[in-house]
Amino acid sequence: MATLGKIRNRSGLLLAVIGIAMLAFILGDFMQSKRSGPRGSIHVGEVYGEKILRQDFEIKLQDYLDNTWKVQNPQTVLTQSLIAQIRSQIWNQYVRDLIMDFEYERIGIDVSDDEFFELLQGVNVHPEISKVPAFQGPSGAFDRTKVLAYLKQIDEDPSGESRERWIGFQDYLINLIKNAKYNSLIGKAMYYTSNSAIEKANENQQKSSFTYVSLPYSIIPDSLVEVSEKEMARYYKENKQNYQQEESRDVDYIVFNVLPSLSDDELTKSSLQELVSDFIEYEDYELLCRRNSDNTNAKFVFSKQNQLEDENWNQLFSKDKGAVIGPYLTKQGFYRISKLADVQYRPDSVEARHILIKPTQSMNLDSVNKTIEQLKLRIENGSDFGLLANQYSEDKGSSIKGGDLGWFEEGVMVDEFNEACFTSKKGDLKIVNSQFGVHLIEVTSKSKKVKKVKIAYIDRFIEPSTETYNQFYSKASKFAAKLINEEISFDSLVVKENIMKRSDFKVQINKENISGLTNSREMIRWMYSSKTGDISDIFQFENNYVIAHLIGINKEGDIPIQNVKEEITSLVIKEKKSDLISTKYSNVELSKIASDNSKSILNANTTLANLSVAGIGYEPELVGSVFSFIDNNSTVKFVKGRNAMYFVSLLNLDEAISLSDVSQQKKKMLSDIQSYAQANSFNSLKESAKVKDNRSEFY
User: Fold this and answer.
1) Residue 403 CB-density burial (10 A; 0-12 exposed, 13-18 middle, 19+ buried)
2) For residue 19, which of 53, 264, 281, 282 sits 20 to 30 Å off, Cα-Cα?
3) CB 565, CB 236: distance < 8 Å
4) What pTM did the predictor assign?
5) What mean pLDDT is predicted for residues 623-641?
6) In whole numbers, what is the pLDDT of the chain averaged over residues?
7) Does a cis peptide bond (omega within 30 degrees of 0) precede residue 464?
8) Which residue blocks in 381-465 are alpha helix, DSSP H?
9) Which top CATH class is 2-30+247-259+468-558?
């Protein structure tokens, strides 16, 4: 197995490893499981009967990763789980685009060249165009001559990047326009009648007041109610629509969690001890830390003594620059050596303002830097920083305040921004690039200087060695061997070996991980290529060796009655109890019902807009019923509620409202149903598109 190869490449071959490898080879011929992989198909899905090539989908994914995600998240590491999330996002968007393009063509929605040119630079320019900073004049107003100038210079870029960016932006804009047209059509298809508006107003305003006695179903013990197989079958048949399921799998599994041994702990500590002398002498401490630390997210910032994040660093605060302590065990459970890298007197806090401009498809980083340089020159020549921030800054939270960020302490902002603010003089204008874009910064005020220290550190996580991994793999292999050689069931062996069994139920084909197992997609793929009762080979997921037992295959459609027998029994019992209670108290006064059961007669009121009753909770059947009791206010009627039987007598039902002018009510409700229809129309299109998702065959 590839995962085992990774472990064994850490050191030379040992006899124990060879023995384990032979055992794994022998087991490989006997294990019932088989690993799934692409089944010869090159299609990752299907929409409206049109097959989607895996290659086309991969191009979409890679294009997004290269041109969008990595630009927006330059510091983030792409993990396996993150890639899976992004893949799902791209799939959903790809399917949506295919369905909507099909629908646009079917009903004739398009954008003509003249229409697009008008929205690009005409009288009614599209908002997405007018808000691009490169297309705005000095006052921040849209300048159509800048659009034309930009389009003329596109082909002057020999790399072709300008043209590609514009084509991408153009496709995005055309899609927005088509979608707006489609939503307009959907909205205009909606209508709301005056009678419906009156009914809605009555739901909100007409009130019903009533008295009631509540008898919980528990007043009749379950033991007094018998439920036959025939009654359960009848209930199941009548309510089959409530017992539907998607295809899924049920699995049991055991985990051998590989934990570091005492010798692994000592080895980690001694490896750090060997670095101490280099840490003391080496001037480029940041490079040494990057090369040797397991903590890739470490940040070395200037801090006051009361802000030191590691209590051991208090020892360094009063020492000379260059002092080193450690190795020592941190509270988080890893070893660390720490160095007093620098000591400075810096402002306790600063007040600053900034202008932020972000690169986009239509405005690359070079263009952003030129714009920022121009803004800096204008401010140096007397222009108001606050007005320019309000016009140009894309940090909307601060732009409305003239770019003002208020007072902040060291370490609050990203590193580049922080260093510029805490080393600049008051009134200096500094240009800084960060993960958010390009900033023009001005420090407007600084507090008194205080002593701060920068502490660098190297962390080493205590990890299992190759020998430790082999020991745990051996345990897993022996468990697997006993399943075969002793002809013992999975459950029986789990009990015999006193191992904790874990389970995951209703696992669907595109689920990324088994509950509690990181990066366990491989196990889910195995489950969908195996039979009930199959035992898996040994999986490795990070520090876990896993053996799985497929215990159930749930087919799409009706849930078998035996799987919901307990639930149906409970519901039929409640049904029979309600019949017994209602029969016993038919035509009986509320006072008699209350006294017989030591209950009180209670008062309540409600509207149809609120399906909960004060003191009771969510009871839609009760609320609906009290608005139908209009024939005789004194009659006691019973309602089969969700939590109890209710015996109800109506006190008062307000007269229904008859509005002469319902225009405002109609306008509001029409807006609501238009929004609902626009938001949910895609779901209907997707259903008719008969989308097939075959990603599980490849990922």
Assistant:
1) buried
2) 264
3) no
4) 0.68
5) 81
6) 88
7) no
8) 385-392, 396-399, 415-423
9) alpha beta
Class of the CATH-defined domain 349-447: alpha beta
Q: CATH 3.10.50.40 residue ranges in the chain?
A: 349-447
Give the mean model confidence (pLDDT) for residues 521-542: 96
> Rounded to whole angstroms, how far apart are CA atoms 437 and 422?
20
- What is the 3 state secondary structure string of 476-512? HHHHHHHHHHCCCCHHHHHHHCCCCEEEEEEECCCCC
Strand partners, 258: none
Q: Is the pLDDT of residue 521 over 90?
A: yes
CA distance 544 to 269: 24
Extract the runs of DSSP E, i.e. beta strands, from 364-467: 404-409, 429-434, 437-446, 449-460
Residue 1, pLDDT > 60, answer: no
State the residue for tokens 């510029």: 420
What is the spatial distance between Cα 509 and Cα 453, in angstroms, rounded to a whole number? 53
CA angle 677, 680, 681 (to 5 degrees): 75
pLDDT value of position 632: 53
pLDDT at 451 over 60: yes
Measured between alpha carbons, how far is 551 from 183 in angstroms, rounded to an integer? Answer: 47
Written as six digits, the tokens of 693 are 């998702």
Q: Return the closest-CA partner of residue 253 out of 24, 476, 474.
A: 476
| Structure token digits, residue 604 | 């309540």
